[in-house]
Design a protein that fits this description.
Distance between the termini: 22 Å
Largest sheet: none
Shape: globular
Helix content: 40-55%
Number of helices: 5
Structural class: mainly alpha
Radius of gyration: 17 Å
């Protein structure tokens, strides 16, 4: 039995509990913000020359309040997408089971920091 889940497994976990014909109405501006955020991450990570070392990744991500990639990603998830999700989905996240894969991600480890070395 595997010890970790893959990113794809984690992303897809629980989605089958949502009827395929269920829809929501969202702000196009907010949806485009999220789209552009994901596109920025793809644009950076698709080319290994963009991140020759850890420092390059850290520079891209930035620090809290820097306005760099991690700030934009946080705004996408915690502000823009927050209003896109219906209350029952928010509740399911709070319960921590419906969309939470039972196996930890591969970047977690059993060390005290829960981060792979």
């Amino acid at each position: 039995m595997p010890e970790h889940s893959t990113p794809k497994q984690r992303v897809e976990f629980g989605l089958e509990t949502i009827p395929p014909d269920r829809t929501v109405t969202v702000s196009l501006r907010d949806l485009m913000f999220v789209h552009q955020t994901l596109a920025e991450f793809v644009q950076f990570f698709h080319q290994p020359m963009h991140y020759p070392d850890l420092h390059a990744v850290e520079r891209f991500l930035g620090t809290r309040g820097s306005g760099d990639a991690f700030d934009v990603l946080s705004e996408s998830v915690y502000k823009r997408m927050h209003d896109m999700l219906p209350p029952d989905i928010h509740e399911a996240f709070g319960e921590g089971e419906r969309f939470e894969h039972p196996l930890p991600p591969s970047y977690y480890d059993s060390d005290d920091d829960n981060v792979a070395s």
